[in-house]
Design brief:
mainly alpha, single chain, cell membrane, Quinol oxidase, transmembrane helix, DoxX, elongated, 7 helices
Length: about 150
């Protein structure tokens, strides 16, 4: 029996980590989905393309719709916990690109147009890519254990 020195059961460590990963996935997924929605339907693809071109993003007319789709689909997949590792890795890379092309020249603080916010999103997505989706993910319910561990 696992007990602490004061006779209370020791809580398995994975339970806390899995719950933390669920929270990270849900929040990051909603944020990425919202940003994809914003690019596609509020700014519109032509508007997002023009903004990207103004920032100096290469191939802005291609990058804007691709990112809108990736953020919409990727956000939804993170919320569900499906393909979490590759999706999160791609989202982290996209945020690093956003930092380089859109924010780095404006310093750190987000209110000045800096990279603070996209750096946090890149770090959260990177952490999910490294750690995987945790136990509370749809992939854990439908995929064999080894496959779920690899792609989440």
């Amino acid at each position: 029996m696992n007990t602490a020195t004061h006779d209370r059961p020791v809580r398995p460590r994975f339970a806390d980590a899995d719950l933390a990963l669920l929270v990270l996935r849900l929040v990051a997924g909603v944020v990425f989905f919202a940003h994809g929605f914003q690019k596609a339907f509020i700014f519109t693809i032509p508007g997002a393309s023009a903004a990207f071109a103004e920032m100096g993003v290469p191939f802005a007319a291609v990058v804007a719709p691709v990112l809108a789709i990736v953020e919409l689909a990727g956000g939804a997949l993170l919320v569900l916990g499906v393909l979490s590792r590759p999706v999160a890795a791609f989202l982290a890379l996209s945020m690093l690109g956003a930092a380089v092309f859109g924010h780095l020249g404006s310093g750190f603080w987000v209110e000045d147009g800096g990279y603070e916010y996209v750096a946090v999103l890149a770090a959260v997505a990177g952490a999910i890519a490294i750690a995987g989706p945790g136990r509370y993910a749809l992939s854990r319910a439908v995929l064999p254990e080894r496959a779920a561990a690899l792609v989440g």
